[in-house]
Amino acid sequence: MASLTQFSFAKDQTQEISKSCLKDYSVAVGDTDAELINFYNQLCDRSNRKNDALKQEISLKIAKRYQVLGYNLKALEVINVLRSQNVTSRELTDVTFLAGVSIAQNALNQMRSTELRSLNESSYIPAKQLAETIRFAQPMIEKPVEVEDDSFKAKTNKSTKSSIKSNTQSKKNKSTVSSEKSAKSKAGAKNTATVKKEQAVIKSAPTHSGSSPFASLNK
Questions:
Q1: Which of 24, 102, 189, 210 is the most buried (most CB within 10 A)?
Q2: Is residue 157 situated within a structural domain?
Q3: Is residue 158 part of a domain?
Q4: Which among 70, 44, 69 has a CA at the least distance from the CA of 59?
Q5: Domains in the chain: how many in total?
Q6: What pLDDT digit, counting tens, does each position of 171-210 carry?
Q7: Domain limits at 117?
């Protein structure tokens, strides 16, 4: 029991930030996350006090952890300290953006769900500019290239060739039938014209009603 008590006491001690560290980093007051506490203990360790590069790296990890946990104001506070030390990096920019967007989103949700109101003119203009900037900065999504199986390609090509051949033959047959119909139509029209012509000649021939067919010979 005594050994377990000592182990528990030692564990609790490691899960706390020293008072001297809290004086140097007041933003850590009230933090209970084990990962954050571990970062601050590393930050305040005597062996790391003169290693500025390591301290800046740990501070960036603290800012990222704050942002993940939803403590966005604390994340921005740590970021401001790093900015004052002329620290710049893509990770720092990403954390700044995510924290700022989260704060804006929370405020908008508060406005819409609790206060039951919309954006006014002064708040809508910058929100619109942000939305447009995000739209222009959206990532390009590449479509995956589909790899077809060789056997599938062969079947597809064969099917395509067969379809083309069938369409060509069908068009040829249609053309032949059309030509035959046209020829028959022309022949029919010619026969009709001939019959009409013969009928016209017969009608135009003179007739001698009541006279003998040999009358002309008697004259």
A1: 102
A2: no
A3: no
A4: 44
A5: 1
A6: 556 555 566 656 555 555 555 555 555 555 445 544 444 4
A7: 10-136
Residues 79, 92: contact at Cβ < 8 Å? yes
Q: Whose CA is closest to 73, among 96, 57, 89?
A: 96
Name the nearest CA neighbour of 95 among 81, 113, 112.
81
Domain presence at residue 46: yes
Q: In the Cβ-directed half-sphere of 186, how many Cα atoms lie within 13 Å?
A: 5
Is residue 72 a contact partner of residue 103, using CB atoms and an 8 Å limit?
yes
Distance CA 35, CA 66 (A): 10
**How many angstroms separate the Cα of 25 from the Cα of each of 12, 38, 74, 83, 168?**
20, 14, 11, 16, 83
Residue 35 token pair: 């990962």
CA distance 195 to 208: 25
pLDDT digits (tens, 9 = 90+) for 15-41: 799 999 999 999 999 999 999 999 999
Give a yes or no: residue 88 inside a domain: yes
Looking at this protein, which amino acid is placed at residue 180?
Answer: E
Return the pLDDT at 215: 47
Nearest residue to 82 (alpha-carbon basis) of 108, 120, 56: 56
